[in-house]
């Protein structure tokens, strides 16, 4: 086994800088089979944190103090876990609620570790190209998982973790979706049962969010000048990926992709890249013709004509904000709460005749609503300020990395309203922020000059 020298340390090549990122992403299908996909990010954050603790004088991106304030505010929210929300079910603040709070806190802290590690590991030790290829590989994994959900929507099995955990823990409604691998969620959205791809994640909306966030880095890594053999396969991967995109029935994903294409077109036009802009427009037109001529176009139209969840989502978001304003505007409630009653059924809850009558907990159906309900208006302000500042710190940079990173932040900002993204999406965003923040100003100026 070869070795590489890092400072005064002689490190096996297997454990070169950034090896936890490599192990996390390249072995992601294995973590899915083991039932560890929702925990792997926290697990691999530990060796990254250990390495950071060995260093001195850590660098941070501008605005990071605001993020630290958000983390402190989030942890302080633990004091509100046993308080009742005005329209939430009273009581229920036992060990289960504390467990959920602990899991979400661990995800926030682990994502912070990922950000700091990328920022503080230079190009020589952790090449940007390697990170981009890892994120591009995850796009391929997401596409393959989506195709699996389309072809074999009934596929599901008990993971290794599910087999070894006590039945009471494995069957817990919060834990089971995260440790029980399945290819698709079967839902009745179009008036008939249809499988929505989720593999290798836990929910259909998670699949959509991850697809969109990995896409910019896939395009950068697989279509770039140093892509090699990947460039020949990249167009076929993108075309195949559109099949599960349609079958996902994710309107939030469709809208985000549309905004992303418009943003890229405007950036190319502003930079004078007329040929690139023409290529984008031509690709869109060809793709639109092929799409409309296929059965996928019909499915999209059926989904747009069946906005069954709009009313419930809107009511839930309104109730979420009202509960916070009336009950705990500063700290929020620390975690989500079950809703008392139902919006559509006098009896409350879902029934065999009305499966949609069950209302999701307050603070769900969108990361934005989770933050405002769990951390209050102050926490929401801190959360949004950090990512907004990072976007505007790079939105004028002409480098391909900054454009891809800003597109990812734009996707994420849109999906905050409709997807719960406190999982893989948050880590992708943090890695993107870290890569852009560590980019030397001299490199940006050189690109501008060119």
Report on this model:
The chain is mainly alpha-helical and 450 residues long. It has one domain (19-449). It contains 19 helices and four strands. The chain has helices at residues 19-26, 28-34, 37-53, 64-76, 95-120, 128-151, 160-164, 167-170, 176-179, 204-223, 230-247, 251-270, 274-293, 295-304, 310-327, 367-394, 400-415, 424-438, 441-449; strands at 3-6, 9-12, 184-188, 193-197. The strands form two sheets. It has a two-stranded antiparallel ribbon with strand order 1-2. It has a two-stranded antiparallel sheet with strand order 3-4. α3 packs across α5, α6 (128-151) crosses α10 (204-223) and α12 (251-270) packs antiparallel against α13. It is globular, with a radius of gyration of 22 Å. The two termini are 41 Å apart. Mean pLDDT is 84; it is low at 1-11, 345-356 and 445-450. Keywords: Membrane, Transmembrane, Transmembrane helix. The chain crosses the membrane at residues 30-52, 64-83, 95-119, 131-152, 198-222, 229-247, 253-270, 277-297, 368-387, 399-418. This is O-antigen ligase like membrane protein. It comes from Actinopolymorpha rutila.
List keywords for this structure.
63% helix, mainly alpha, 4 strands, 19 helices, globular, two-stranded antiparallel sheet, 450 residues
Q: What's this model, at a glance?
A:
With 450 residues, this protein is mostly helical. Helix content is 63%, strand content 4%. It has a two-stranded antiparallel ribbon with strand order 1-2. Strands 3-4 form a two-stranded antiparallel sheet.
Helical content (DSSP H or I, runs of 4+): 55-70%
Question: How many helices does DSSP assign?
Answer: 19
How large is the share of residues in beta strands?
Answer: under 5%
**Main sheet makeup:** 2 strands, antiparallel
> Mean pLDDT, rounded to whole units?
84
Q: Quaternary state, please? A: single chain
What's the number of extended β-strand segments?
A: 4
Low-confidence stretches: 1-11, 345-356, 445-450
Q: Give me the side-by-side strand order of the main sheet.
A: 1-2
Globular, elongated, flat, extended or rod-shaped: what is the shape? globular
Number of structurally distinct domains:
1
Report how far apart the termini are.
41 Å
